[in-house]
Amino acid sequence: MAEPATDTILVLNGPNLNMLGTREPEKYGHATLADVEALCRETAASFGLKADCRQSNREGELIDFIHEAHARKMKGIIINAGGYSHTSIALHDALLAVQIPTVEVHVTNIHARESFRHHSYTARAAFASLCGFGIEGYRLAIQGLAAKLGLKPKA
Predict the structure, then answer these.
(1) Is the pLDDT of residue 116 over 60?
(2) Domain range spanning residue 85?
């Protein structure tokens, strides 16, 4: 049985997000995935939470992480499914199956990009979606999730 993590949120990053900092910096900026994870841990801690940060380029592994979040009774999920946002009904279904409050994040404004990026399956399984704020969107997502959970910043 998985060890409970009731004070933890899952921060899930999908394909190619391991390339942040070097991948198309004119679109994604120069911050790395390590920078994103540090930002998430810091923001989560300000609400008395831990951030379990995961990244995978494989759809099935992302689904396994979502199922693990359910088994461990995590409080919430922040997800940037990358390109899978626009194609993966399986990720959508996994998020709905676990019924964990979820916020979708995209570093860029997906609605100002190619038309195939305008639709997001993962957004339909989330209570909120943020895009276009750069990596700051992760901080905003955690703050929004904390508000949804009724958590206040710790002094």
Answers:
(1) no
(2) 8-148
